[in-house]
């Protein structure tokens, strides 16, 4: 958990620094324009992330079933 917190803090600090530099050194109008798609991206990431998670769970369940069948087949073979 410690590494995740460090990554989160690092990302937040870097994001703030980038926004400050963009708005002061480049153009505040361009910074605002660059931030406009962010909410849409967040919604898309949430939506597709949930779909991906469900499909991953489904694939893992299928692999588990296949593994169970293979194990049952192997244990029923006599040497």
From TrEMBL:
The protein's GO terms of the molecular function aspect are: ABC-type transporter activity; ATP binding
One cellular component (GO) term of this entry: plasma membrane
- Tell where it localizes: Cell membrane
Q: Which InterPro entries match?
A: ABC1_TM_dom, ABC1_TM_sf
Identify the PROSITE patterns for this entry. Answer: ABC_TM1F (PS50929)
Q: Which UniProt keywords apply?
A: Membrane, Transmembrane, Transmembrane helix
Leader sequence range is: none
Q: Give the membrane topology, semicolon-separated if more than one.
A: Multi-pass membrane protein
Residues in domain ABC transmembrane type-1?
1-79
Predominant localisation class: membrane
Q: What is this protein called?
A: Multidrug ABC transporter permease/ATP-binding protein
